[in-house]
Amino acid sequence: MKIVLSALISAGTLFFTTVASIASPYVVTINQDGGHLVATGSGSIDVTGLQHFSGLKFPTVGAEEGTIITGPHANTTANIYYPVSLNGPTWFGPGSDEYRSLAGSGSIVGLEIDFNPNSAELILPAGYISDTPLSSSADFGLITFASLDIKPGTFTWTWGSRPDQSFTVEIGSVSAVPEPSTWAMMLLGFLGLGWIAYRRPNQIEVA
Question: Is 112 helix (H, G, I), strand (E, B) or coil?
């Protein structure tokens, strides 16, 4: 029994480690929170082969130009990757107004399409190392989806075939996809149930 338990634990640990190491695509969610428009992003980005220069960026959102930048509420020095040729839509809504954030946190992260997916800008923290996990947020204040004229839905841009060579914007209610760590915990739970089911017949026989 100890051998079986040890094997189950080892299998679960190996699965957890393997899943956790898989690159997680970068996703920004934009939602209404207490009347405020709030954007929150996390994931990693593969910048292999992309050229960049250094510049200042401020968290901004604009639907028609396909702009979403999150991070500290300040002009922040960033790596600006340009030009990045994207596969994806030209915008995430027809609204022509751009709004700056009122507050924010985490790293400066964003995408600026500026009407041309073939020469877009990818904004990342200064000194960013490819595939490093990122997290970022921005509060754009008392504006709504309607006033910004953005369209609820999922918008994804890619520039390569790897999972983390993409940038996704999820606007409004979008079904959540379990994180890799969630799948790992679920597996460990199933392994535990399997162990309980295995022990019960043996306990009955001994009794």
Answer: strand
